[in-house]
Amino acid sequence: MNISDPTETFRQEARELLDQLEAGLLDLEQDPSNDDLINSTFRALHTIKGSGAMFGFTAVAEFVHEFETAFDRVRKGQSKANTALIGVALDAKDHIHLLIENPDAPIDGGTEILVQLRAIVDGAAVDGHGEAAPAVVAAPAPAPVVVEAPKPADSGAKRWRLTFYLPSDALIYGTNPELLIKELAGIGPISVLALSDRIPDLDIIDPEVSYLGWQVDIEVADDPTAAIDDVFLFLRDNMELTLAPLGGEAAVAVIEAPAPVVDVAVAAPSDDAMPEAPFVPEPVVAKAAPAKKAKAAEKAEADKPAATSLRVPAERLDELMDRVGELVIAQARLSQIANSSSDTALKTIAEELERLSSGLRDTTMGIRMVPIGTIFSRFRRLVHDLSGELGKQIEFITTGEETELDKTVIERLADPLVHLIRNSVDHGLESAEKRIAAGKDPKGTVRLSAVYSGAEVAISVIDDGAGLNHERIRAKAEENGLISADAKLTDQELNHLIFAPGFSTAKEVTALSGRGVGMDVVKRTIDGLRGTIDVTTTPGKGSVFTLRLPLTLAIIDGMLIRVGDGRYTIPLAAVEECVELPAGVEANAKGRNFLDIRGSLVPYLRLREVFGLKGQGDEHEKVVIVSSGEGRVGLVVDQIIGNNQTVIKQLSKLHSGIKSFSGATILGDGTVALILDTAHLVASGQSYVERNLGRAA
Amino acid sequence: MSENQEYMTALTIRLEDELFAVEASRVREILDLVPITEVPSARAFVGGLINVRGRVVPLADLRVMFGMERPEPDEDTRIVVMEVDIDGEPTIAGILADKVHDVTDIESASIEEAPKVGMRWRPEFVKGIGKRNGGFIIIPDMERIFETPGGRSTSVAAPEERAAS
Amino acid sequence: MTKTILTIDDSASIRQMVAMTLTAAGLDVIEAVNGQDGYDKATTNTVHAIITDLNMPVLNGIEFIRKYRQHPASKGIPIILLTTESDEELKRQAKEAGATGWIVKPFKQDQLLAVIKKVTGA
Predict the structure, then answer these.
(1) How is domain B7-146 classified at the architecture level of CATH?
(2) Single pTM value for the model
(3) Which CATH number does A159-262 carry?
(4) What's the complex ipTM?
């Protein structure tokens, strides 16, 4: 049972609608006459207004109302959705967002935005028409209400006679005369007489049509006109009704004369919340124009397939993951028992259970996985704004939006990516003049991509700007005491200096990127996600920043290996292949641990050494080749035991600093096994290679 | 916290030939010896991991911090699973005990500060020394002991050996 | 017998608010997210009244009412349309399509209950 606050639900809803609105506006800028986009923009505004008013966000409702009115010109084709308009509209969207997050704080800026909006809309008017308020002109209708000359009611009259007949379709359309009469009884004591004069003969009677009339005498001191109007609120326009005081004068007081309805400005909807005034009878002549608009908007919607989704609190997902984790562990223990048993029935069911739990695991993991496109979209707005502010033309390309990551990882990635994109746009891309001088397209390109790579996801921010300036980096690092003047650093090491705390190459502190302190925070955030960040650069051509993150945080397929007496798990997705360690390789190695794998040299690490174990390895050691990003390393183990489903348990602070391990798991026999951090081991292998060969293998 | 003005409710455990007291309210359970998975490259103080009801729990050996001998476990050896604060964060950890005695109340009045000199172990790891039945009970400062190097405060941890095998 | 009200609205917050209001008053509530979903639920469940929003994807409020009124199950079932303005033309269309009544947004919870009481007696 969902017991959350509807106001909070509205807030979440509004946030999503605002995101849609922003995306729609950005798309509209590229395609200004797209009616579908215009209508969906309108619809988003409309919903925010309606719901906002419902939940007490009056400032929001009022602002959006004005926004809607101004934007209405665009909808009617009287104004074009040009860049200036979109710009103001985006500002308006930001304002709405502020209002929703802080409904009580007085927030300025709304009026200016509206003024700007109106100015642009009027200025960009296509036909130069003034405020055309299509008035609904009424033709005098055949008045179904019985009208007599109005005469004031006599104050002494205490009994009233109400006579009415319902419209013929009233019953079918849900009106219940019994309830009407009950309501009338609420006004005062009544006596009711049913009028059967209009009931046709039995052979032609249609049981669903309302033929009956009623004569109701009501005892009440004051004029019951208003109260009776209220009872018949929904029916007034096409029912028959007379009301007259009984006794005393013969004058008949009537409810309403059907005045011709004029001056209803449809373009400016009235602000009244509830219809207090008695319902004025409608002209029967249909008015075509307003209906068509509504239909067009609704048609656009009808073409979209309804997406059904469900909101679930994140804690419930976590609980579900825990349960599945426990199930996997228990199933592993069962499999172990089954393996060493000769009971075939047991073995069969254990296998079945393994298959089922694997499927359940995949499905559950899938629930937490969210396409990275969900955060990519907000960057469009960022680049759009940056482009305007810096006066740089920027082409922003995204690929791999469908790449899925764990929800929690994605949320924590947003800030680092913002930093990186800002950095690329602000410092990486040169101004248009510089680019032309360098023979480049004046429009700079920033590309954001996400792709799977083994057990990781690689997210890259690529720009075709000037690249990292190594001299400047060096100078800055020396200036800030990070390196000594005569320190020898490879290009890669220079590149990595930008992630060091206390470093900044920005000549000026630009308002946008701040002091360039973002980079060390970015690195720390990525470290916290057990990921890595890398940068490669080519002077004059551009830079590539790559984040690598582990794919899942909870349950993976693992390969169980033994080193000495201890058992360890390697994420299977990182494993490329397994080979035997060629005999006599040690003797020939001369301290250089490399394997020849089909022509390429792969460095290897002896896990015994890495773990500080004494003694010799087994006779036929195996090498598990794992990869991370571009690098590979072979891990020498005593034995490869097999594959298992590995429920990842986080290590406590006491052990989380040990780089070789990324977590722990519980094996089928109940013991704990550590999970190897393949990215770190590959990196170790790489630096070993670099130290020994002086270059990357 | 069971420590109030008058007394501290403590679980007494034996390490080597000394009695130690840990806060009873923080103890989750007491286990017989279970298989311990060694963590290569870990500090000797927390060289192992154990499985407690499906949870991976680090195993701490206070004897390391107090420079004691560490004989092989025997049938009296127990693991006290309790909540400790590591750099301010509550965590579940297991403590090896040569023997577990009982839960007892130690009168706060009888707890004295550890003498700065002349004591067998590092004073910064000892919160106080209480008296019971004519003997001494050492009340360890768990927060200090479990502080990670580079953790919150600036106190110096005891020199460690790498996990030898 | 407890009356069941079907509420059709693409806004989760409005649906939630309506459902909370009605269940607190002792009614059962079924929710639908658009006109088509509403039609499916209205024709496969026993409902005693329907509250529907106007602007919804797939099938809007008035389209829903028209479609539903063609189904025999709809006879006598009151339908209340939620509208954002007291647009006379809109009300006329709604009635023509087969709506029983309307509520203008924003509305308070007791206004909602009053209208429900008016058309269902509950």
Answers:
(1) Beta Barrel (2.40)
(2) 0.51
(3) 3.30.70
(4) 0.89
